[in-house]
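Model it.
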Amino acid sequence: MEEFSSLPGIGKKTALRLVLHLLRQEEHSVVRFSEALTNLRKGVVYCQACHNISDLPLCEICRSPRRDTSLLCVVEDIRDVIAIENTGQYRGLYHVLGGIISPMDGIGPAELQMESLENRVASPDSSIREVILALSTTMEGDTTNFYIYKKLQSYEVKLSVIARGIAIGDELEYADEITLGRSIVNRTAYETLINK
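Modeled.
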């Protein structure tokens, strides 16, 4: 029960229910479940290019020859990759920051995948022509967008931000697929936002 209740969103009562459920299952089902948990930690790694989860050094998206390598969508975490992929509206690559700048929580640029983002854009082999900033529409998300803009503005890439069909303060993972898809398709140049 203690181990289950250490998971986010799982209280003591839910943990008890889960444990009792597992006790009622056949042994081979519980063994398969425990092996899946072990393999999750041992077999899943972070993509060397975009920091998405993968079972190989490069994730399926980065390996795909059908993706548009001129587009790079910057997201906060892996849940945002899943949310955008579910729209079917985006065919480019991703860069997962692993969070957003939040001084109140002790998270600065050094704790995020900022350096690898700049390296991807600056690389002589890079075919990236546009960086889409698809971060949460919160103060922290806007701060992170501005930081990225300052870091990348000297490179020959277009910087855009998803359209504000996403309400200010909303998380991408909770947006419906149609609204999120339209936000990607109708993105705007980042400079137009900061020059208003």
